[in-house]
Amino acid sequence: MSGKPDDVLSINLADVHLSDQRPKSRCDPDWFEAQARPLRQIKRLQRKYNCPVLIAGDIFNCYNASPALLNFALKELPDKAYGVMGQHDTIAHRIDSQDRTGYLVLVRAGKIQDLKVGEPVEIECKGAFLQLHGFAWNVPLKPLLKPNDLLLEIAVVH
Fold it and tell me: What are the backbone angles phi and psi of residue 85, rounded to the nearest 5°?
């Protein structure tokens, strides 16, 4: 990112796929450290630009994150984050399975704020007002019925 700090209103990411297991294609001796590096970079950018992080699904590679992975995510994911569930965050790709997922642990711990369809979240960033609209995996997009010219409308979609 080369923009001036006032130009950046959010950092957007998706498909983080945090996992206990190193993929066979990787040779990192410490897989948790390898996953931490880009997350720490995002946290540095967030501090630099003083803006929220929008996560468009698949924080975890599998719904049943281990206690070690949950603790890692609580430590390494950025604060002031807003997100939606991806299919890997769910059981059998079912959004209604949220109560038994690692994703919901992050929500209940206050690490991320879940963006639900039809329940926009308004936040202020550097004098601009953003309205976040969440569309988790397999949730149909819905057009805004009454866009607000005073807000920057952002759809967070997996």
Answer: -80, 140
> Token pair 């001036």 is at which residue?
4
Longest CA–CA span in the chain (Å) reads 52
Phi, psi of 157 (to 5 degrees): -125, 135
Local structure of 61: helix, strand or coil = coil
Q: Mean pLDDT of all residues in the chain? A: 91
Per the CB < 8 A criterion, the answer to whether 60 and 103 are in contact is: yes
The Cα–Cα gap between 152 and 135 comes to 17
Q: For residue 65, which of 27, 16, 25, 110 has the smallest C-alpha distance?
A: 16
Could you report the per-residue pLDDT of 64-106, keeping only the tens digit for each?
A: 999 999 999 999 999 999 999 999 998 877 777 777 899 999 9
Distance CA 43, CA 92 (A): 31
Residue 25: strand, helix, or coil = coil
Are 38 and 80 spatial neighbours (Cβ–Cβ below 8 Å)?
A: no
> Considering only CA atoms, which of 51, 37, 38, 48 is closest in space to residue 82?
51
- Distance in angstroms (rounded) separating the CA atoms of residues 121 and 20: 32
Q: Residue 149 above 80 pLDDT?
A: no
Reported pTM: 0.90
pLDDT at 146 > cutoff 80: no
